[in-house]
Amino acid sequence: QQQVKQSPQSLIVQKGGISIINCAYENTAFDYFPWYQQFPGKGPALLIAIRPDVSEKKEGRFTISFNKSAKQFSLHIMDSQPGDSATYFCALPVKRGNNRLAFGKGNQVVVIP
Amino acid sequence: EAQVTQNPRYLITVTGKKLTVTCSQNMNHEYMSWYRQDPGLGLRQIYYSMNVEVTDKGDVPEGYKVSRKEKRNFPLILESPSPNQTSLYFCASSFSGTATGNTIYFGEGSWLTVV
User: Fold this and answer.
1) Omega before A40 cis (within 30°)?
2) Strand runs labelled E in chain A
3) C-beta of residue A109 within 8 angstroms of C-beta of residue A87
4) For residue B104, what is the DSSP state?
């Protein structure tokens, strides 16, 4: 069964710094790798996603990079802002064709002024 | 506006008193699911539904029931709540399950405390 492991569990970054969080997975038979962002008291919302035919995708200050050989994809938050303070989740199907989703335990990012 | 609406948002109940958390989506999505979120455990899937009258267990289905009689609604039923079901619950929907490119839309969450 697919396991999704996120690291680090928590991260404190100064304003303007770079936040890097990672998602490692076991089963490679997927073609969509999303990051969800959750603010306190709110439901998660899709932030950015990548397909494995590209190694990197950038949307504003957020960059997602994919390393197929390492079975890992990462989220980089450039010029981190206090408003980026949130919990970030990656999620993948338990196995290909299965509609159960496995979420990681989340990365808590705190950006201090 | 695309929405997943859950009710109630906050509830304190007593052990054994049946309760239902409602969930409704306005996006005509086929796939709906329920998650619980606990500190240090992330999001765990309780049940999901691929379409009307089609439901299946997620990772932590014990103590919960669901039904999907209409496409837009997917209520979560706790027949006999226990304190270990105290949690933050999220309903979610997407166009078609875990297929490529599907965005999952989450509700605002329902805080449930069982005493």
Assistant:
1) no
2) 4-7, 10-14, 19-25, 33-38, 45-50, 56-59, 62-67, 72-77, 86-93, 101-103, 107-112
3) yes
4) P
CA distance A82 to B97: 33
Q: pLDDT tens digits, residue range B2-35?
A: 899 999 999 999 999 999 999 999 999 999 999 9
Report residue B90 as tokens. 């999220």
State which residue of chain B sits closest to A43, comparing Cα positions: B108
Q: Find where tokens 């999907």 sit.
A: B68
Contact B61/A at CB under 8 A: no
Question: Is the CB of residue A59 less than 8 Å from the CB of residue A48?
Answer: yes
Q: Which of B41, B45, B108 sits opposite A101 (nearest CB)?
A: B45
